[in-house]
Design a protein that fits this description.
Blueprint (H helix, E strand, L loop, with lengths): L21 H14 L7 H9 L4 H7 L9 H10 L8 H23 L5 H29 L3 H32 L2 H11 L1 H9 L4 H13 L5 H8 L1 H10 L1 H14 L1 H6 L3 H7 L4 H9 L1 H20 L1 H17 L11 H27 L7 H19 L3 H13 L1 H14 L1 H24 L1
């Protein structure tokens, strides 16, 4: 393990030059590449479909292409054991291959458009989601294995989250302005070209030596094509994970992680339709997200990193969960004052800050739970766990609002009930992390007595 699963990471005072080191800048660019396709098959994709007057139920259902993110563990063992582009190394080879595939998929979505039907467009989006999920597996393994110590791991995690969030702002704000004044296919083409940032960063990046050495040793001793090697590649990471943390704690970890970002996932597919419903143009949304939203994200990432270092992962996770739930529930206020740009700006500001805190604390916590040699698969297990519930349940958000909430409470009342309900879901992860903290305390007490 790279750090204690529940305690605070070692404290260090960083100097400005630490933030400009080649590894950190590379991580920033790779984080941007990771974040670029995320909303292009998620919230922004839903916005495009809403612009084309697609029904809410259909928008919700097509968002299920994002389930690819929650199935990463199924093919992650290949990234730990099978090289993709051997001349680049285990991690960079898979990074480059997946980035090229993401760019090709985004270009295909731009070319196909809605004119060829939702099935064809959805298939292209599924290819993007699968390729993007593969990129995330390889990137997480690279980030964890390249770090020299826990301090550098924290720095790289912050850079990764910051790059990811910058990409989210671009694909959730600037892209709206481009789509407003040009077209959605043009905007998707721009993002396909933007994947070149990740390609360049991958070519310039170092290949993790420690991870490659472990992978090479595993391949010599247990070739993946042998029965023993195949079992070690597929089952080994999970066996080691549960053995390292203990069955009860591991199950609590996975459950808590799975519900942590559920509020954000549930509101994701329909947020574009909501903006339209309350009279927010794409220009307004784009400008707000690109200005105060960007500043709030920077502040949230910084606060999340600081909290993880100063008060420990568990307390930082709880703080992030509370802020995330409040930020999402607060959008109900906009239903009382549709078209209120100052209120919308304030809500966006807090929401982006809260998501910045929640995002970096969760990434830092999950990174601390992996073991060298099984990094890609174990992190894929954790990130799949974090995504599976949200990706599965969010597909019904549109239909639930359309068929249940709006008929019962009216249009604005239905939207308000939806956001309050989404925010309240944060209590699930709070309860589970409290149980996990209690389990850790009880285990430590038992060991001390024994």
């Amino acid at each position: 393990m790279t750090a204690s699963a529940s305690g605070a990471a070692p404290k260090r005072r960083y100097q400005f030059r630490d933030y400009l080191s080649p590894r950190v800048l590379t991580m920033l660019a790779l984080g941007f590449s990771s974040g670029l396709p995320f909303l292009m098959v998620g919230n922004t994709f839903s916005y495009w479909l809403a612009d084309e007057h697609t029904k809410l139920a259909a928008i919700g259902f097509i968002s299920w292409v994002g389930i690819a993110y929650s199935l990463q563990f199924a093919w992650a063992p290949l990234l730990d054991r099978v090289p993709a582009l051997k001349f680049l190394g285990q991690r960079r080879g898979w990074l480059l291959l997946s980035q090229v595939c993401v760019a090709a998929g985004l270009a295909a979505m731009a070319f196909v458009g809605v004119a060829h039907g939702l099935v064809v467009l959805g298939a292209a989006a599924l290819f993007v989601a699968f390729s993007a999920a593969t990129q995330d597996i390889a990137l997480a393994a690279w980030r964890i294995e390249i770090a020299r110590d826990a301090d550098e791991q924290g720095l790289l995690t912050s850079a990764n989250t910051l790059g990811f969030r910058i990409a989210l702002l671009c694909t959730d704000s600037l892209i709206l302005i481009v789509a407003q004044h040009f077209s959605w296919p043009f905007a998707y083409t721009v993002c396909a070209i933007g994947m070149g940032v990740g390609v360049i960063a991958t070519l310039l990046a170092e290949e993790p030596v420690r991870g490659d050495e472990v992978a090479a040793r595993n391949e010599r001793e247990r070739p993946i094509w042998s029965l023993r090697g195949f079992f070690d590649a597929v089952a080994g990471p999970f066996i080691i994970f549960f053995r390292t943390h203990g069955m009860q704690a591991a199950i609590l970890m996975l459950l808590a992680i799975s519900f942590y970002r559920l509020p954000d996932f549930l509101r994701g597919p329909v947020i574009g339709a909501f903006y339209t419903e309350v009279g927010m143009t794409k220009d307004v949304v784009g400008i707000v997200r690109a200005t105060v939203g960007l500043a709030s994200t920077f502040a949230g990432v910084a606060a999340g990193g600081y909290l993880s270092l100063r008060i420990g992962f568990m307390r930082a996770l709880v703080a992030g969960s509370i802020m995330q739930g409040l930020g999402i529930a607060a959008f109900a206020l906009l239903t009382m004052s549709p078209g209120n740009v100052p209120l919308f700006t304030a809500l966006m500001c807090f929401d982006d800050f809260a998501l910045g805190v929640a995002g970096i604390t969760l990434v830092a916590y999950m990174s601390s739970l992996t073991s060298l040699g099984y990094t890609a698969t174990q992190y894929a297990l954790l990130s799949s766990t974090y995504a599976w519930a949200g990706k599965l349940l969010k597909g019904g958000s549109g239909k639930f609002i359309q068929d249940v909430l709006i008929p019962r409470f009216g249009t604005m009342g239905g939207w308000a009930a939806f956001f309050i309900g989404c925010g309240s879901v944060a209590f699930l992860s709070l309860a589970l992390f409290w149980l996990l903290a209690w389990h850790h305390r009880r285990t430590r007490t038992a060991l001390a007595v024994g």
